Every structure is written in structure tokens, then in C-alpha cells.
From TrEMBL:
Keywords: Oxidoreductase. This is NAD(P)H-dependent oxidoreductase. It comes from Nonomuraea bangladeshensis. One of its GO terms (molecular function) is oxidoreductase activity. Residues 251-275 are annotated as: Disordered. InterPro entries: Flavodoxin_fold, Flavoprotein-like_sf, NAD(P)H_dehydrogenase_qn. Its EC number is 1.-.-.-, 1.6.99.-. Gene3D superfamilies: 3.40.50.360. Residues 1-215 form the Flavodoxin-like fold domain. Belongs to the NAD(P)H dehydrogenase (quinone) family.
Length: 275
């Protein structure tokens, strides 16, 4: 297995840093190849601007056509091109980060904004009467697996249906479905550590054991059963889920996760102050 770890935390001695290091040592000990993109250590540029596209930047700047022109010409900046090469090399991608203000750190979102360029991660495939491009289960990154490893400051009870922050599955849905599944990656259920603001040394020992177990089962873990865009579940071109396909008891984001027991030939199976 070839694994890329995209790591976003400014402190190497943090809990996230320890989880990243443990992932590297565990996977390498099991015979897997590992690469790490340590975004803070790389001083990753987190904003998209005309400099990303050189002579292919439009004036005024329009990011989508500029991105397409630079990608098609092989003229994206070397840092972006290197990260795209890592994604194509990997068969598994792990994102290690703390949840800050209900989402990923800005530097990691900036990595997505720049690396997931037009014609690489989106704008792929044919748009016609029966298809709306290759995305949501198809696309450039199809055949790869992705998993979030997230630390959350608050207790688990805060992140449930009746918890004040809402279900963790809902908070992570935009990343799982809109960033990772969109260009074709199969998304594994996340590894989430709650209550990290008050984690003790004993708690970490338990967490480390659970993390090792998850890492060593990456190849056999069933992915979240998101519905593929072009599987026939959605009307074209409205992309509304067809009537009668709802899983009983599901609503909102849950409508777009099929019952894995149904077996439709697609993939199986989602506080601000993280540490």
C-alpha cells in the first residue's frame, strides 16, 4: 500500500503530530510506502492567486479557466504539481488535522483549493443528457481511498443528533462528499478523537492503540456508501435523488448514503478547539 499523509498542525509536538508520526511508523513497519506532506513545515501557500497560473492567468483573474490553462499546459507551480503527483502515486490518502471552527485548518483548505485544480480534480468527463461529468464516485482519483483522522476538543456527546454541535457525520460531510468523493476517492469512515482538550497520558495510550488498529485495517475497511452521481440514482440534469430511493429514517445529507446491504455494484459504506 502506498499512503500519502497530508498533515496540518503548526506544532510538531502536538497530539496531531504524534498521530502522524505513529501512522508513519505503523504503516512502514507493516511494509507499506509512506509519504508525508507537512503543510506547516512546507510553509504551504494557502491562497489561490494569479501567480499560480503564470502566463495562463486571465485578466481579470478567473480561477477556473486560468487553472485549466495552466494544468493542460503542464505549467502549474512546482509545489502544486508535486502534490498532484503524490496523489496519483498514492492508493490511500490520510488527512491528519484538528477540527477548528467546525472545519479543517485554513492551510489545509488552501491545499485543496490549489491542488484540486480544474481538469485534475474537477471539470473532468463528458456533460450531456445522461451524464454530468465524471464526479461523485468517478474522476481522476477513482480507485484511491481516503480517510480523515480528526481531533476534536469537545466531548462526544456534543457531536450527536441532539448535541449542540450536531452529528460529527454532518460536520464532516462537506469534506467527505464534496472534497474527497467528488473527484472519485472512496471515503473510509473517519477516525475521530473527542475530548482532546482534556486528554491524559492514559487516554493517549488507548487512542494510540485504536489508531494502530485502524491503520492496519485500511485495506479491508468498507467505505461510506455514497451514491455515485452516474449510477442512475439521480435525475439528469437536476441531480435530484429519484423518488423512492430513500433509505428509511434518512434525511438531509443521509439521503446521499445508500443502504450498503442493497448492493448496487458501487463502493460500500462519516469544536472548534481541536489539538
Amino acid at each position: 500500500m502506498k499512503t500519502l499523509i497530508v498533515y496540518a498542525h503548526p506544532e510538531p509536538r502536538s497530539l496531531n503530530g504524534s498521530l502522524k508520526d505513529l501512522a508513519v511508523s505503523t504503516l512502514e513497519a507493516a511494509g507499506h510506502e509512506v509519504r508525508v506532506s507537512d503543510l506547516y513545515a512546507m510553509n504551504w501557500k494557502a491562497v489561490v492567486d494569479a501567480a499560480d497560473f503564470g502566463e495562463h492567468a486571465t485578466s481579470p483573474l478567473r480561477v477556473i479557466p486560468s487553472s485549466a490553462g495552466a494544468y493542460d499546459a503542464g505549467a502549474l507551480t512546482p509545489d502544486v504539481a508535486a502534490e498532484q503527483e503524490k496523489l496519483l502515486w498514492a492508493d490511500t490518502v490520510i488527512f491528519q488535522f484538528p477540527m477548528w471552527w467546525y472545519t479543517m485548518p485554513a492551510i489545509l483548505k488552501g491545499w485543496v483549493d490549489r491542488v484540486f485544480s480544474f481538469h485534475f480534480a474537477y471539470g473532468v468527463g463528458v456533460h450531456d443528457e445522461t451524464r454530468y461529468g465524471e464526479r461523485f464516485g468517478e474522476g481522476t482519483l477513482r480507485g484511491r481511498r481516503a480517510m480523515l483522522s480528526v481531533t476534536v476538543g469537545g466531548p462526544e456527546s456534543h457531536y450527536t443528533d441532539r448535541g449542540i454541535n450536531g452529528p460529527i457525520e454532518d460536520l464532516l460531510f462537506p469534506v467527505h462528499h464534496g472534497i474527497l468523493y467528488y473527484p472519485g476517492m472512496e471515503v473510509l469512515p473517519p477516525f475521530v478523537l473527542h475530548g482532546t482538550d482534556k486528554m491524559t497520558r492514559g487516554d493517549f495510550a488507548d487512542a494510540a492503540k485504536a489508531w494502530k488498529e485502524r491503520l492496519l485495517s485500511l485495506e479491508t475497511t468498507e467505505p461510506i456508501a455514497f451514491r455515485r452521481q452516474n449510477s442512475g440514482d439521480y435525475e439528469i440534469p437536476s441531480l435530484r435523488l429519484k423518488e423512492g430511493l430513500e433509505v428509511p429514517g434518512r434525511q438531509g445529507f443521509g439521503l446521499h448514503v445508500r443502504d450498503p446491504r442493497a448492493g448496487d455494484g458501487t463502493s460500500g459504506h462519516l469544536r472548534r478547539n481541536g489539538r
